[in-house]
Specification:
By secondary structure, this protein is an alpha/beta fold. It folds into two domains: about 1-10 and about 180-260; about 25-175, Rossmann fold. It contains 13 helices and five strands. Strands 2-3-4-1-5 form a five-stranded parallel beta sheet. The mean pLDDT is about 90.
């Protein structure tokens, strides 16, 4: 039963609700975002990280915990082009705006009338899906200090965007989410298990196990939770069937969990 209880602690039911471990580096990233949103010194903020590094969690954290925030729009999946994005912004203003008028001066004037200067925030998750024209429009609007844009995107695509000439002189805020190191992964596992008084399981983890887990999960936090949940299920089943090889935390159960979750291809 202890291993079933451990499995539930690491089970992911909704990827947008994954609670990220407050490592030192992640806590610092969280503070950077909160400071950017409260001080309004950066009209454009990029949150960069690999899939599963906590970008969506960081946006949701700000949305849910900074009650004074004025959020104009929160985009979860930005599958739109430049014109569609403008239509969405126009819809926020109201029915009186001339939708056939795509002059940037007119657009910025009307938006400023409605939203003021950097009073409102627009969150865009998965921003690597934006096309270049839409990113350029966002840059122009941020230059006009109408909205503060918070864009979360994959690190590789984000670095590509920021290397474009138009961003060289603007120096937008960049928040990097780095992967957990070995000590942080071990501390995360220990703290999670000890929160439910599962000290017997906690003592089974060795440094060599952590190294192997990070290898299979590619240092991805979401994948880490998935592997641990699967591993504890394997151990529970193995104990029921008296399969001693897979009845505790060891390299065999870690590898089997990696195979079951598709993290390790044995073909």
């Amino acid at each position: 039963m202890e291993y079933l209880k451990a499995r539930e602690l690491f089970t992911v039911t909704n990827i947008n609700e994954v609670k990220h471990f407050n490592s030192i580096t992640f806590s610092y990233s969280k503070k950077e975002l909160v400071d950017s949103l409260t001080k309004k010194e950066n009209p454009m903020v990029f949150i960069l990280g690999d899939p599963g590094s906590g970008k969506s969690y960081l946006l949701n954290y700000a949305k849910e915990n900074l009650k004074e925030l004025k959020i104009a729009k929160y985009f979860t999946y930005p599958f739109f082009d430049e014109k569609e994005f403008l239509e969405i912004l126009f819809s926020l203003v109201g029915p009186n705006i001339k939708r056939d008028e795509f002059n940037i001066d007119y657009i910025t004037t009307e938006l400023k009338k409605e939203f003021g200067e950097l009073e409102y925030v627009i969150f865009i998750d998965e921003a690597q899906h934006l096309d270049e024209r839409t990113v350029e429009l966002i840059r122009i609007l941020s230059d006009q200090n109408i909205f503060q844009f918070i864009l979360a995107m994959h690190k590789k695509e984000g670095e590509y965007v920021l290397n474009k000439p138009q961003f060289h002189t603007r120096n937008p805020k960049k928040i990097i989410l780095n992967e957990l190191n070995n000590d942080e992964v071990l501390r995360y596992i220990q703290e999670t298990l000890l929160s439910q008084n599962l000290s017997n399981i906690t003592s089974e983890f060795k440094k060599s196990h952590i190294k192997l887990i990070r290898k299979y999960t590619r240092k991805n936090f979401r994948a880490l939770k998935k592997l641990l949940s699967t591993m504890f299920e394997i151990i529970n089943l193995s104990q029921e069937k008296n399969l001693k090889k897979y009845s505790s935390v060891n390299n065999h159960t870690i590898t089997m969990a990696a195979i079951d979750t598709g993290m390790l291809n044995v073909k």
